[in-house]
């Protein structure tokens, strides 16, 4: 029951928000609803016992004739992603407060509608429900980016849309295939776990699912939609995409790919990890060349996500745990970065690194918060990025030392270009453009300080977070190993 | 039987009312007649009857009859303001549509091949006239003539096929034909094979499946929009019901023989419809080609025959009908204001009329097959049906086509929301609003809770 409230509260909020035609009321209504959702999520967290069980389960028949149930629940892995969604959404809404969007009610209604879709994805235990949530999250973000985006938004978003939906249609094919193999004639995740498919079948299913997830994350070479989409989208859209939506792909791999077709994963894992590491290096090099800070962050995000993917596919405890915590950290950090750039862009109408400079002198608060977020991104010990990145690198290293070394060096390289752009934007002398820059105020302060607080708190004391998912990850690995040894 | 009688009587009453120039009474009488017919349809649910060995009113027939009647009802609601500007002979319009509906009811409930022919002819003759009812319009005349020639041609095929089947079995009754086939599985009369193929060709003409689709775009574009709406929804649904009754019923024992031929037709239809639709600038033409591609998806149900084939067609047809009606309603509305039915004339519709824009968007999403709309469920059950028989390649082709479909349906959405248009206020008459709102709700309800109509028949 609590879970239904969690999932559908944003939807109710979306409908309510759509009815407020006054811009400011719509904003406030959206914020209030997202904070309520956060409160519900925290309530669930308090009741949550960190073992491997699935809790708060709701299960009732939805479309009986087709064997579809509304079956959802939360285990440790879901809990992390649910928290991520519900912590970031209010921040994202608050971060958009300075913008005056046309038809604000529609804008905020779409954001909240998307939240419901995301929560469905993260809690679904029925493959059909998962697919519905997957698409329900895509439609609003398409409209958000294509309506309120920048130059070339129509073309860029069409590409984004066709790309992602192409992936998801093949995933649907895979889901139908599994359903037809399932003697119980339903879409239950638990039944899918039990299926005994041979290696060829697993290989096909693996690719059907993997392409959908790889496009969403995105993993090299399926990433080409991403930098353009991030750049043209309105900032809240970019935050939703990079902060939450790409985690759908990661979560999908963990929940629907690894345990359902472990043999397929094992057969292809080497190629995937190599692709992921190529992505890490490739994106880092491109990021290094970027003049536009927003594009730089977009590419660095590809780089970081590549590492998460590589870590997951090592099928090790560190890799999975690292990816769980890194999902959360990456979400927080990346929306922080995009927000800082948005603040700069909204005042100076540019994100070109070369045109900026000396902002630290005129805006010390912005400079210090930006620095903290940046440190989190480059995974300095004591910030939230460290623990996840450390675990991920360790897992890749123990999988293959060479790959680990390449990935590790790239992360250091990442720090270089991040600090270089920080130096150019914040340090040095002010120029004609930046001299009159006003420091952050009002809602901007609230958002940035919250993000910084999260970065430091999680960085210093990540243990409670790690505990949430620990038992579930352990259980998942047992399941995978059990199935693998059963077949061999 | 009551259904046909009611509709035919309504048609006659309307004709006489028109004679006495009581224009205002036409629409209420028609709508009332349709409601009574719908009432009869619903009352006869679960009470299968056979009339004179010619017509079999079972749940299959009733379900398709209901969709046809509801679709026609909505199309009549759209006549407000439409005919007044186009013609003096509104009564004839109404009568012809109603008679066509009679033919359609016969088509969905025939038990005898001669009734199939009679039903198709009653419907087609009315449509030939309706397509050309704008006497002074060149395109309309062209559409009518083309439709007539092609239609007559296809009827010839159909009739020849029926004759061959009669030659093989000595009967027009579809149950007798089926029994004949079942009893002689090893020794089927050779007349059956050309007979089945010819009937298939004839029916493919009627439903507009490639490569027998050439009339569709021109006729759809040339005919008055309202008639096009009628043709592409109600008529098409009836065509599929007729198809299904024969091929999933009587010819089912020879499935292995005609399935490969149909499979080729399906693949050509899907690819051709979708790829050509991609290049259309005219909204009506685009809908025509998209209707060809939908015919392809609908034929999926015949590739693999299961207990659910009929039900799947019903779901798909319902989804398609309601979405198309919304599309045509908005099209007529826009065309009256801007004088053009190009996709460009939809530019900026969101500002001019948010309701129409939203309804059109949901309709397009449904036609494209996005989850939570009826169109998705329709496509889903079709895919599921075919996957059950491991026709994975076919599903992959269908998925690639669905992707192409997204592209051109989204072009309409892009025009509506993201392009700047001329700031002409677009007012929607009340009846249009009713149609838009109800259809949109139906699309969403069927998309979110399709259990309502799944496996109904």
TrEMBL record, chain A:
Its main location: membrane. Keywords: Membrane, NAD, Translocase, Transmembrane, Transmembrane helix. Residues 125-410 form the NADH:quinone oxidoreductase/Mrp antiporter transmembrane domain. Residues 7-120 form the NADH:ubiquinone oxidoreductase chain 4 N-terminal domain. InterPro entries: NADH4_N (IPR000260), NADH_Q_OxRdtase_chainM/4 (IPR010227), NADH_UbQ_OxRdtase (IPR003918), ND/Mrp_TM (IPR001750). Coiled coil: none annotated. The chain crosses the membrane at residues 28-46, 106-125, 131-148, 160-180, 204-225, 237-258, 270-289, 296-315, 327-345, 366-387, 399-419, 446-462. The keyword GTP-binding does not apply. Pfam families: Oxidored_q5_N, Proton_antipo_M. It is found in: Endomembrane system; Membrane. It is a multi-pass membrane protein. It comes from the Bacteria. This is NuoM family protein. It comes from Pedobacter ureilyticus.
TrEMBL record, chain B:
It catalyses: a quinone + NADH + 5 H(+)(in) = a quinol + NAD(+) + 4 H(+)(out). Residues 112-402 form the NADH:quinone oxidoreductase/Mrp antiporter transmembrane domain. It is a multi-pass membrane protein. InterPro entries: NADH-Q_OxRdtase_suN/2, ND/Mrp_TM. Pfam families: Proton_antipo_M. It is found in: Cell membrane; Endomembrane system; Membrane. Its EC number is 7.1.1.-. NDH-1 shuttles electrons from NADH, via FMN and iron-sulfur (Fe-S) centers, to quinones in the respiratory chain. The immediate electron acceptor for the enzyme in this species is believed to be a menaquinone. Couples the redox reaction to proton translocation (for every two electrons transferred, four hydrogen ions are translocated across the cytoplasmic membrane), and thus conserves the redox energy in a proton gradient. NDH-1 is composed of 14 different subunits. Subunits NuoA, H, J, K, L, M, N constitute the membrane sector of the complex. HAMAP family: NDH1_NuoN_1. This is NADH-quinone oxidoreductase subunit N.
